[in-house]
Amino acid sequence: MDGDLPYPNTSLAVFPSAEGFGWMVFDGPLSPAFWGICTLAKMPGSPAERNSRCVRKLEALLSEYRPATLVVEAFEGEGAIRRQRIQHLSRSIISLAAMHGTPTRIVSRAEVAAYFASAKPKTRYDVATAVAAHLKEIRHRLPAKRKYWHTADARMALFSASALLFVHYGNPLEPL
């Protein structure tokens, strides 16, 4: 049974952040199974060392959950505004998934905005609020809306990862 997935339709979404990454495992549409926040990038070290710690943690997640698909947000190209360290980490995440034989789906911010169109999202916080409305399991982890002079709360990465899974499993003809 070593090759069997723990769940037949499991997908893992990873959302890199300045502090590490948020991750969410769904066992199907709107079916959260496991989640967490990895803050290893907060620790001292060069950007490469911080990314390496995150990749090791992600490798453990891929080995433990053996997802059918890994979902990440677009980190390069039109509409993607990610720092260089996050771009390098995202490329490493995709490479790691390929080494594990896990297909990767890249979701754009435009796809997320379209999926949550009824919430009229202008910010990541608006999307996080819409996610929280549908996922009672993590609703209590939604941070307060940040002031523009503060850095993003690490918990926002959990909601961003969840939003990626909403899009991954969702019907584009029936957005929320």
Structural commentary:
This protein is of the alpha/beta class and 176 residues long. The protein has one domain: Ribonuclease H-like superfamily/Ribonuclease H (Nucleotidyltransferase, domain 5), CATH 3.30.420. The protein is built from five helices and five strands, in the order βββαβαβααα. The chain has helices at residues 47-65, 84-99, 109-115, 124-134, 156-169; strands at 11-16, 21-26, 32-38, 69-73, 104-107. Strands 3-2-1-4-5 form a five-stranded mixed sheet, sandwiched between helices. The longest helix is centred in the N-terminal third of the chain and has 19 residues, at 47-65.
Helices and strands, in order, run as EEEHEHEHHH
CATH superfamily: Ribonuclease H-like superfamily/Ribonuclease H
Biggest sheet: strands, sense, closure? 5 strands, mixed
**What is the number of beta strands?**
5
Number of domains: 1
Report helical residue fraction. 25-40%
CATH topology name, in short, is Nucleotidyltransferase, domain 5
Topology:
Layout: E1 11-16, E2 21-26, E3 32-38, H1 47-65, E4 69-73, H2 84-99, E5 104-107, H3 109-115, H4 124-134, H5 156-169
Parallel strand pairs: 1-4, 4-5
Antiparallel strand pairs: 1-2, 2-3
Concise description?
This protein is α/β, with parallel strands linked by helices and 176 residues long. The chain contains five helices and five strands; from the N terminus they run E-E-E-H-E-H-E-H-H-H. Strands 3-2-1-4-5 form a five-stranded mixed beta sheet, sandwiched between helices.
